[in-house]
Amino acid sequence: MGMRSKKFSIGSTAILAIFTITLFLTGPRALGQQERVLHVFNNNGKDSEQPSSSLIFDAAGNLYGTTSGGGVYRAGTAFELSLSSSGWHEEELHNFGLNSVDGVSPAGGLIFDAAGNLFGTTTDGGLHGYGTVFELTPLAGGGSIEKVLHNFNNDGVDGIYPYGGVIFDGAGNLYGTASAGGVYGYGTVFELTPTGTGGWQENVLHDFGVNGSDGVTPFAGVIFDAAGNLYGTTFNGGADGGPNGGGTVFELTSAGGGSWTETVLRSFVVNGRGGSNPGALIVDASGNLYGPAFYGGSTGAGAVFELTHTAVGWMEKLLHNFQYSDGAFPNGLIFDAAGNLYGTTFSGGAYSFYGTVFELSPTASGGWTQKVLYSFNPNNSGGVSPAAGVILDSSGNVYGTTSAGGNGFGTAFELLNFQP
């Protein structure tokens, strides 16, 4: 049963809990896994190509995601994977690029609202050619109707080229980042507020790049903590190197009246041993932040870090340094209910260059133990080079996408969890 035949009952509180704060899922710890390919994307003039975002579930267990390429107009898609007695079936919910005004090349993931509509971003296209925020409303007979909520504009004020997805707050406002543009040209954090007449009003909460030390090029989206503060990362910039630095972790705190104050919590050194070029964050119930550093660490293959708020400020702890043999260049993270972390690496692993799915488990002594759950193999149809994180179901099975492999254009996969 796919998106076309139902509206989903997802409350706004649940949306925040699932999509914007902790991303906790209730599955047991994964202990030994085997890959099952759910869909092989094809270059056939219709199918999606090159998924680069994480998947999401609906209440019925269907999966949703985006691809940056493929589809009827070769400009990317939003798709659904639904399970029937004959296996998993893929449906394109929207083909981007009919005339580019609807957006081109979505790179971020999707989220639901309480009515079952989907929201996301495109990195390009739109009325001005610099990306969009869109909404997809399901149709009873299949597919969806797209509505563009915001067209980014290179006017010296608005941001451009949003790569991350968007999140909701409890009042139904949307938040996200644009990787460039704004007053200084290095990106923005934005809010979209519904006007009550069907439109949406944008408010730029922060302009990056006043001197580079506050970070530049925010590729990932933002998250909330329980107090309503926003957190995110910039891929470059920071106090250690200005615009050419190794990226930052930042916090935005509401100052009232629609204004927000930015605080840089961590500046990374390019290829530093503490990691560099951070990706999307998650937050635990205690307010600690976790994220992947795509580069840096002890070998340059990236790291996973934790930031803990102490009386003397935010303190960083490295949870794992990748060694290429156990993965390289990590992507997004997620928790299970037991406090274990899961993620992917774009490269490394048993086959050297093709990526992994990994688990990090806390130890009694305060450290973390890493385990490779799966190394992607170029010699089968299971896909290679995952460019996004994973999600878990209630049985501890892991779901994700690869950006390449299969027939050359990526796959959607499941890692089956076998309990001893």
What does this structure look like?
With 420 residues, the protein is mostly beta strands. The protein has one domain: TolB, C-terminal domain (Neuraminidase). It has 1 helix and 33 strands. The strands form 8 sheets. It has a 5-stranded mixed β-sheet, with no helix packed on it. Strands 3, 4, 5, 6 and 7 form a 5-stranded antiparallel β-sheet that branches. Strand 31 and strand 32 form a beta hairpin. The radius of gyration is 20 Å and the shape is globular. The N terminus is likely disordered.
What Rg is obtained from the alpha carbons, in whole angstroms? 20 Å
Gross CATH architecture: 6 Propeller
* Distance linking N and C termini: 32 Å
Strand order of the largest sheet: 1-27-28-29-30
Low-confidence stretches: 1-31
CATH hierarchy, class? Mainly Beta
Shape: globular
- SS class: mainly beta
CATH superfamily: TolB, C-terminal domain
Task: Report the total helices.
Answer: 1
- Total tally of structural domains: 1
Q: How many E strands?
A: 33
Helix content: under 10%
The CATH topology annotation reads as: Neuraminidase
